């Protein structure tokens, strides 16, 4: 699989000429990011908040992605109190052939043993790390150490150019401090063949303004 980080929690996942976009943000909903403005065969949204449900930002091809991808949904919560604060969210487990990736949406709770079992043997995990609206860096690191995906891509955090304010979510550094193998790249793209054991890859958002 080829995985492109558009920005925030939005990714484009490609395989064999088919493409899925996950959690596109609505135009203007995430400071410092340009519009998503991509084409895809399918759009998945983990929940109905504006920084995750910008379906109108994605031009659909009219093709089906089901001949390449299969998608399994795991129901979770957007907070630690069973959705009382922010409602539900979803994890998408995306398969293509023998490859398996998971987009964790705005995960804000611990996972059950059954859910952990569903998330074994991941080639790639796209995990929120910024805290406040989601699990924080330490919680995300604990989860990734338990699941041991080959590639871990952090999302839903701020940096000095994009993302929500410092009073809301943190930078990626709290997460990286807890992880053993970290690689920062200047690209927005990675393939699932790039790691053979758990490695965090910090990418650059494709739609950062003034890139």
What this model shows, in words?
- The protein is mostly beta strands and 211 residues long.
- 10% of the residues lie in helices and 33% in strands.
- It is built from 3 helices and 14 strands.
- A 7-stranded mixed β-sheet has the order 7-8-9-10-11-14-12, covered by helices on one side. It has a 5-stranded mixed β-sheet with strand order 5-3-2-1-13, with no helix packed on it.
- The longest helix is centred in the last third of the chain and has 11 residues, at 137-147.
- The protein is globular, with a radius of gyration of 16 Å.
Oligomer: single chain
Radius of gyration, in angstroms, nearest whole number: 16 Å
Largest sheet: 7 strands, mixed
Q: Which consecutive residue ranges, at least 5 long each, have pLDDT under 50?
A: none
Helical residue percent band: under 10%
Count the beta strands: 14
C-alpha geometry: globular
Biggest sheet strand order reads 7-8-9-10-11-14-12
Structural class: mainly beta
Compute the average pLDDT: 94
SS field, number of helical segments: 3
Order of helices and strands: EEEEEEEEEHEHEHEEE
Give a quick set of tags describing it.
33% strand, 211 residues, mainly beta
């Amino acid at each position: 699989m080829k995985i492109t980080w558009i920005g925030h929690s939005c990714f484009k996942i490609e395989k064999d000429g088919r493409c899925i976009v996950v959690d596109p943000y609505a135009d203007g909903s995430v400071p410092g990011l340009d519009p998503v403005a991509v084409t895809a065969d399918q759009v998945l949204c983990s929940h109905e908040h504006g920084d995750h449900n910008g379906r109108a930002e994605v031009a659909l091809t009219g093709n089906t992605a089901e001949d390449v991808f299969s998608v399994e949904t795991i129901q979770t919560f957007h907070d630690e109190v069973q959705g009382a604060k922010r409602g539900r969210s979803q994890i998408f487990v995306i398969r293509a052939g023998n490859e398996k990736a998971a987009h964790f949406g705005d995960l804000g709770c611990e996972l059950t043993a059954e859910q952990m079992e569903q998330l074994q043997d991941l080639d790639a995990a796209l995990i929120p790390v910024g805290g406040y609206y989601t699990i924080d860096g330490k919680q995300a690191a604990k989860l990734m150490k338990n699941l041991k995906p080959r590639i871990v891509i952090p999302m839903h955090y701020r940096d000095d150019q994009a993302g929500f304010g410092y009073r809301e979510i943190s930078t990626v550094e709290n997460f990286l401090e807890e992880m053993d193998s970290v690689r920062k790249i200047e690209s927005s793209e990675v393939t699932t063949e790039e790691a053979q054991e758990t490695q965090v890859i910090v990418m650059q958002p494709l739609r950062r303004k003034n890139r």
